[in-house]
Write a structure and sequence with these properties.
410 residues; mainly beta; hemolytic lectin cel-iii, domain 3; 4 helices; 25 strands; 9% helix; elongated; signal
Length: 410
Amino acid sequence: METKILVLSLLFGCLAATKIKSNQLILAQGDEYGIFPNNLDIGDSQVAFYQHGKFGGAQMILDASSPRTYALSGNQRIGGSSETLNWWDNAISSIKVGKKAMVKLCRYQNCEDEKKKPENAVILVGPYSTKFMGWSSDYTSTIVLSPYDEANNPVVSVFGGDEFNCDTATVLKPGNYNSRDLKLNNIDPGEIRGFRVPLGLVLQIFDQDYQAGQDGFIQGSSTPSSQVDLYAQKNNNQPDKSQTNLGKFYRKVQSIKIGRANEIYPITARWVTLDSSWGNPLNVSVMQGLKLDTTKVSSTTFSASLSLGYKYTNGNPVTGQQEFSVSATVGFELQNSISSSIKKATQVTAEKICAAKGDQKVTMWQFQLSAEGALYGAENFICKYGDNADLAPSCISYMKCADAECTRCL
């Protein structure tokens, strides 16, 4: 006897029922883990639920263009259908979420006890699909749907499963989240394993509570660069100081800060002449650290901006200047090196000396960073002599100098 599978589709509040053969498996558009496909075979405002993994078995499509709640353990019906939803109670194993949809899957009826344990609810926004829901498979008793507008109200997706699997998952709006806040928002900080950061947002993660300790940055994008799988980063064997490797935060995130991209300001870097002398040692009072002359830029936004790279200017206005972009990897390395100094947001005066070398000219150079009224002076300085005295150091950062006068770069 041929087995039939009922496929329920809720489109704009109306039920449409069709039947497909059980061997007509609805195939995935990616691997067996969570993915963010540009195109799904459902509408942008729809969420599709499947009885089995790999999008198999019975299928139910619900509309999320307006807020709706479905209790699966009762006798609720969809539209004018005679079919109740209790067949789906604890029976959802794979899912697809359209790019204009948000869905919350609750373990208990009416989302009771949602806040008692992070794993009592999973929250997802589209575009997203997974063939296997992992630990959250077959546990849903209540579905809460709502529209999602990523262009105007973006959120960061946080995953507690490797490779973006929704073992546990939630979404976070811009703001600061300590470990307790994260638990109240349906994610255990010790289980965080991945993020999707959309265009318009910047995510800062910390390995200590209350936005302290080591930090890392992820700038939102509409490209795969905004999708960070900490497990994969952990296993790619890149240096910890590389921004492209945030694997050191795998299951170690304790707090989070989410800001808007319009809080990121372009940073310009250059070598600046402090003083010169002929035949005598130089003794210069050097300003070091971060000085904020504007309410626009804070130490946090300065740090976040630097980690995303900067513009480097060399030459001088008389003989000609050149400006080019420095990669986020270099910016992150520099930010990581001076983060404690940036956080103090104060400048101090330090006496620096360049020794004399016969009657040669000597010039002291300092590496400086600036953005919207904020100025950072590096603690490191370069003494250059003779014919090289008036030539700015050659490297895009003092960390890249390969010799004492920075004529060669690493």
